[in-house]
Design a protein that fits this description.
With about 190 residues, the chain is mainly alpha-helical. It is built from nine helices and no strands.
Length: about 190
C-alpha cells in the first residue's frame, strides 16, 4: 500500500510542478487543465480527480512556489547562524535571487499577482507573503522596518529579473539594478 501511496504522491507532485510551469508561461486564465495534464504526462481525468477545480490546481502551484521559497530562505538563515539581522537578510536575499533564476518560479508569482481578483488566489498570495515576512522576522530577527525593506527589495529584484533589466545598458536600468543581487536565468 505504501508503494501505491508513494506513486500517487509522486504523481500529485508532478502535476503541481507541471502546473507551475504551464501557469508561469501562459497565465491562470488562459491555461487549460488539459495542458497541465499533458505536460505532466497524466490524464486530464486524473488531474481533475486531484484538483476538482482549476483554481485548486493554481493555488497548489502558488503554495508549491512559496514552499520552495520558504525552504530556501530557511536554509540561508541556517547557514547564517547567529549573524546580525542585516547579514542574515542579505543571505536570504541572495538565496532568493538564485531561486528566481528559475523563470517558472519567478513568473508563476507574477501570474498569481495578476490573478488576485480571484479570492482563493489572493488568499494564497497573502499566505505566501505572510510566511516570508514571518521568516524574515523570526529567523533573521529583523525588525518590522527591516522585514518591509527585505520584501520591498525582493519585489524590486523580482521586477528587474522579470524585465531583464540586468542586461539593459541604460541609465534607468543601471540605477535600479545597482546593489541588487542577480543570478542570470539559465
Amino acid at each position: 500500500m505504501s508503494g501505491s501511496r508513494s506513486t500517487a504522491e509522486e504523481r500529485r507532485r508532478a502535476v503541481i510542478r507541471s502546473a507551475v510551469t504551464v501557469f508561469a508561461r501562459s497565465g491562470y486564465t488562459t491555461s487549460p487543465v488539459t495542458k497541465v495534464a499533458e505536460h505532466a504526462g497524466i490524464s486530464s481525468a486524473y488531474v481533475m480527480k486531484l484538483f476538482p477545480r482549476k483554481v485548486d490546481l493554481f493555488v497548489a502551484a502558488i503554495e508549491d512556489c512559496y514552499d520552495r521559497i520558504a525552504e530556501a530562505l530557511e536554509e540561508a538563515a541556517d547557514q547564517a547562524g547567529a549573524a546580525e539581522p542585516a547579514e542574515t537578510l542579505g543571505r536570504m536575499g541572495a538565496r532568493y535571487a538564485e531561486l528566481i533564476a528559475d523563470r517558472d518560479l519567478l513568473l508563476v508569482q507574477v501570474q498569481a499577482l495578476a490573478a488576485t481578483q480571484v479570492p482563493e488566489i489572493a488568499a494564497a498570495v497573502r499566505t505566501g507573503y505572510a510566511r516570508i515576512t514571518d521568516l524574515a522576522m523570526s529567523r533573521a530577527r529583523a525588525t518590522a522596518e527591516q522585514a518591509q525593506e527585505f520584501i520591498a527589495r525582493g519585489q524590486l529584484c523580482h521586477l528587474l529579473t522579470a524585465i531583464d533589466a540586468f542586461s539593459t545598458d541604460e541609465t534607468w536600468a543601471k540605477t535600479l539594478t545597482t546593489g541588487i543581487r542577480h543570478t542570470p536565468t539559465p
